Automatic annotation (TrEMBL):
Sequence ranges assigned to domain Helicase C-terminal in this UniProt record: 414-577
Protein name: RNA helicase
Entry GO MF terms: ATP binding; hydrolase activity; nucleic acid binding; RNA helicase activity
An annotated GO cellular component: cytosol
Domain of life where this protein originates: Eukaryota
Region (Disordered), start-end ranges: 1-67
Keywords of the record: ATP-binding, Helicase, Hydrolase, Nucleotide-binding
Family as reported in the entry's similarity comment: Belongs to the DEAD box helicase family. DDX59 subfamily.
Organism from which the protein derives: Vombatus ursinus (Common wombat)
């Protein structure tokens, strides 16, 4: 049976464009007869099942074995009449004729192949007419389930046609101030700012549309984490935010939900922009965003990252997308071509803000923000927010709310930290001992090194000596290779992954239980992020770090950040003369700072010192 014309896949313009005509494509080299070359006003497109045309049907309305019927249209309202109809590749009828998706490209919601088309009914990515028909059948079944759930759900939940405005739930309002403060204290929630809303206890307290509530449950979000409890209501009110929370605490969902709500508002241009430092993190965020957006009207995302072909990303931008997820370099490249419109952006999220606002990325981020509206909402998120970034954020944001979950800039408490003093020549031997230790070795193991060549050489050595399946990961790998390695890591294909810092931030490597810092990171902030790969989403993990005198600049920081977690530090570190010298210099700075502060107790001493120095001159 034929799929009705209403099920036809939407391309760049509406199916009702009168300038479009349908043509039957012939094999290459075969000439068309005058009868076959005529214009056909209507075409029945082949779906999952096909049948022979009826006796009263013209040959052109029958099915083609290869599905070579297509609406030939690229015209739009801004094009001239002579350009309104140009030949285009035919719409694919069957999934088997569609190619596999490249990393970062849209994926068919039914079969997982390249999602070349967008369904005009649901805005979902599909690869062919066959998968569109299957998708619409699934949607019909899901709609019936949603209607049934909605009939027995909270009657206060707004419909998709209603403008959303966050209001604190009656249960939250009924709590006493002492109860709220006690809750924050128990959960380690610290908030700085004026007129900050109370944290939610359940996602139902947000009053989200029922479809979004269902998506949250399908994605495994049963109860909000501490960062989600406080950050979501603040974000829904449109406030600027600076957020610092442990790695794996649920920060992504905490900013995605306000992003989705802002993007739901009717607007012809993109409404939300999410900036990330790495391609892998951008791909992960888009995947989570699509899970939460499923079934919401006109909600489309675009992934703009380097390492992938530019034309498909430009094509995707023309599909009335609402949320842009990008790395700064690729977005600036597209902005220079005037191929993206940022004037309608209502919310900007800068993930891994400490990296994004360092010298390497800072100017790129500022150039992007200059092209967004001044009244936008801006959210900065990271596990570590150094003081320099705090100062910069105060200039960038308007009346921001600062949220700190747990101890600021400290490693994740779910990760057991082991600091080992290992001299450079003994590092490989110690790593092999760990990989052969039945108690410590829990594959897959993530090993961090400081250079690309070191990653390749160490990966070869691990495989040769231990026989374990090992692979290296760094920025010189192509995006296809990097995506394949990540998939292999998730699926247990590799037992050991030797990586530079490209895997150190943001990624939910939930099956990683052991991290080894073969080379100590260049800063403690990077250390916090890297050890956090072993404690995602509340799971427990172990992080082993090798140190020696090559990392002497960080000795004092290691003691300050690791010792409070209860970890035992090596005697070589505690007795190091470099550590004692750093402590002495820090005490001098503290004393100097105290001398500059004038109080009633030290006022006379300051005057005497001033008079003494003046008389000596």
């Amino acid at each position: 049976m034929f799929i009705p014309r209403s099920l036809k896949v939407k391309r760049n313009v509406s199916d009702d464009d009168k300038s479009c005509v349908a043509k039957k494509l012939k094999p290459q080299g075969e000439k068309l007869s005058s009868e076959e070359d005529r214009e056909i006003p209507n075409v029945a497109l082949v779906g999952e099942e096909t049948s022979a045309p009826s006796s009263g049907q013209s040959p052109e309305l029958g099915s083609s074995p290869d599905g070579h019927f297509a609406a030939v249209c690229l015209g739009g309202p801004e094009q001239s009449a002579e350009d309104s109809c140009v030949p285009e590749e035919p719409i694919k009828s069957f999934a088997k004729t569609q190619r596999l998706a490249e990393p970062g490209e849209p994926v068919c919601v039914v079969c997982g192949r390249y999602g070349e088309y967008i369904c005009d009914k649901t805005d979902a990515d599909v690869c062919s007419l066959e998968c569109k028909a299957k998708h619409l059948l699934q949607v019909t079944e899901n709609e019936e389930k949603v209607k049934l759930q909605k009939a027995i759900s909270d009657p206060e939940s707004p419909s998709l046609d209603t403008f959303y405005a966050y209001k604190e739930h009656s249960f939250i309002l009924s709590l006493l101030d002492d109860q709220v403060e006690n809750l924050k204290l128990q959960l380690g929630i610290s908030v700085q700012g004026q007129k900050v809303p109370r944290p939610i206890i359940d996602f139902e307290h947000c009053g989200f549309p029922e479809v979004l509530n269902c998506n949250l449950k399908k994605s495994g979000y049963e109860v909000p984490t501490p960062i989600q409890m406080q950050m979501i209501p603040i974000g829904l009110l449109g406030r600027d935010i600076v957020c610092s929370a442990d790695t794996g605490s649920g920060k992504t969902a905490a900013f995605l939900l306000p992003v989705i709500i802002r993007a739901l508002e009717k607007n012809g241009t993109p409404s939300a922009l999410i900036l990330t430092p790495t391609r892998e993190l951008a791909i992960q965020i888009e995947r989570q965003a699509k899970e939460l957006m499923c079934g919401l009207p006109n909600m489309r995302t675009v992934l703009l990252v380097g390492g992938l072909p530019l034309p498909p990303q430009l094509y995707r931008l023309k599909q009335n997308v609402k949320v842009i997820i990008a790395t700064p370099g690729r977005l600036l490249e597209i902005m220079k071509q005037s191929s993206v419109e940022l004037s309608g952006i209502k919310i900007v999220v800068i993930d891994e803000a400490d990296t994004m606002l360092k010298m390497g990325f800072q100017q790129q981020v500022l150039d992007i923000l200059e092209n967004t509206p001044l009244d936008r909402q801006t959210v900065l998120v990271s596990a570590t927010i150094p003081a320099s970034i705090e100062r910069f954020a105060s200039q960038l944001l308007h009346d921001p709310v600062r949220i700190i979950i747990g101890e600021k800039n400290l490693p994740c408490p779910n990760v057991r930290q082991i600091i080992l003093w290992v001299e450079e020549p003994s590092k490989k031997k110690k790593l092999f001992e760990i990989l052969n230790d039945e108690k410590l070795f829990k594959p897959p193991v993530l090993v961090f090194v400081d250079c690309k060549l070191g990653a390749d050489l160490l990966s070869d050595a691990v495989h040769k000596i231990t026989g374990l399946q090992s692979i290296s990961m760094h920025s010189d790998k192509t995006q296809v290779e990097r995506t394949r390695i990540l998939q292999g890591l998730f699926q247990g294909e590799y037992e050991v992954v030797i990586s530079t810092g490209v895997l150190g931030r943001g990624l939910d490597l939930i099956n990683v239980r052991l991290v080894v810092n073969f080379d100590m990171p260049s800063s403690m902030d990077e250390y916090v992020h890297q050890v956090g790969r072993a404690g995602r989403l509340g799971h427990n993990g172990t992080a082993i770090t090798f140190i020696n005198n090559n990392t002497k600049k960080l000795f004092l920081d290691i003691v300050k950040r690791v010792k409070p977690t209860g970890s035992i530090l090596p005697s070589q570190l505690l007795n190091s003369p470099y550590l004692h010298e750093q402590k002495r210099k820090e005490q001098q700075r503290v004393n100097q700072a105290q001398d500059t502060v004038v109080t009633g107790d030290n006022l006379m001493d300051i005057i005497k010192k001033h008079d003494k120095s003046h008389s000596q001159k």
